[in-house]
Amino acid sequence: MSRRNPFEEIEQMFEQMSDQFGQFDDMNVPATQSLSVDLADHEDSFEVTADLPGYEREEIDLSVADRTLRISAERDETTEEGDGNYLRRERRRRSVSRSLSLPEEVAEEEASATYTNGVLTVTLPKAASDEDSRSIDIE
């Protein structure tokens, strides 16, 4: 009489699940992720820091309006040149976005941003303003 090995059954179950999840990779669905940020309150401004590794400046969009900072970035990780003989392709179109409510009004026209080594830093001077949304240039 042979004993049943429950661990072998669990391994088989995990292999089946892995195969089923692999089918979703072929659907070419863009991946969207949330973006983690740090918000610092300085005496005369707010500073927002976000890690965006692998993105180019041109792929990042920033805007501020009504005490809300919107950060979004999108990149296409696939190449058009020669598909090769891939057994698995997980690098696809990636996008991240985040809307961040600010605790106080900011001087939208004086907002600035820098992007260095994958780290985006947005400086938002505090002030009262009733203007419409303004795009922020990244230096």
TrEMBL record:
Q: Where is this region: Disordered?
A: 72-117
Which InterPro entries did the record assign?
Answer: A-crystallin/Hsp20_dom, HSP20-like_chaperone, Small_HSP
Q: Which SUPFAM superfamilies match?
A: HSP20-like chaperones (SSF49764)
Q: Which CDD domains match?
A: ACD_sHsps-like
Which PROSITE patterns does the entry mention? SHSP
Q: Where is the SHSP domain?
A: 28-139
Q: Which family does it belong to?
A: Belongs to the small heat shock protein (HSP20) family.
Recorded protein name is Hsp20-type chaperone
User: Which species is listed as the source?
Assistant: Halococcus thailandensis JCM 13552
